[in-house]
Write a structure and sequence with these properties.
The protein is mainly α. It is built from five helices and no strands.
């Protein structure tokens, strides 16, 4: 990660067309499905690929080549949506039970 940070700091001195960190936020989000763990793995893979090629900075080409496979991203997105649905369902059930629980405890007091 230290190399990635160093590359990021160096990228601030690059021209716009050479700077992979100026790619659209949508591109980054689609590459990691909005998951910081997937982003970390992707960046580590990109840094490793850069070092294998004796590169000194991340490029859009390397980032594109090391982006998680579309099938993996789809699987992660489906899993995330299922988890979000479970949380929303649990929250709505809890909201229904909370007033009853609160009223019952007030009556017992």
């Amino acid at each position: 990660m230290r190399i990635a940070l160093s590359n990021y700091q160096q990228s601030q001195r690059l021209t716009e067309e050479d700077n992979p960190f100026d790619l659209s936020q949508r591109w980054w989000a689609s590459g990691c499905v909005g998951c910081i763990g997937v982003l970390k793995d992707w960046l580590v893979d990109a840094v490793a690929a850069t070092l294998v090629q004796n590169g000194t900075s991340l490029t859009e080409e390397v980032l594109t080549k090391t982006m998680p496979h579309p099938a993996r991203r789809l699987s992660l997105e489906i899993e995330a949506r299922a988890g979000e649905h479970k949380v929303a369902l649990h929250d709505s059930e809890s909201a229904k039970q909370f007033p009853t629980t609160c009223a019952t405890s007030l009556l017992k007091s």
